[in-house]
Amino acid sequence: MQDNPNTGESPSLDCEDWRIAFQPYAAFPELAFVLAQHLHSVTKLIELGRLGAAEALAGLDRAINALMPHTRFADTRYREIARKFYLRAVAGKLSTEQEDELHRLGLLGEGK
Asked: pLDDT per position in the chain (112 positions), as tens?
């Protein structure tokens, strides 16, 4: 999902987006439950205020980094460059040219 190029806003996390993202967990109910527990923990940290939110953000950053090995970005020998573009792609901060090039290289799927 990318930021809206006209407004700089991130897309909403609607129910369908979550269904699509979590579909692979259908075959792994225990792992789905563990992920739900982690997401609940993030929610509780945010509810604690500024310090909890900082911890929640750090945890989400760790999660984003932990997902990289499961993406096409991990299948390259240029790991540090791939990590840079992975993080920019996740944040929706790629230029149109960068996005087109990553599609051409097969690192980005079709998306939404």
From this structure: 444 443 444 566 788 889 999 999 999 999 999 999 999 999 999 999 999 999 999 999 999 999 999 999 998 888 888 999 999 999 999 999 999 999 998 898 765 4
Which pairs count as long-range contacts for 36-39, CB under 8 Å and 24+ apart, including other chains? Answer: 38/63
Q: Can you give the residue ranges of every domain in the chain? A: 13-64, 71-112
pTM listed for this prediction: 0.77
Token pair recorded at residue 84: 């840079």
Q: Tally Cβ neighbours within 10 Å of residue 19.
A: 9
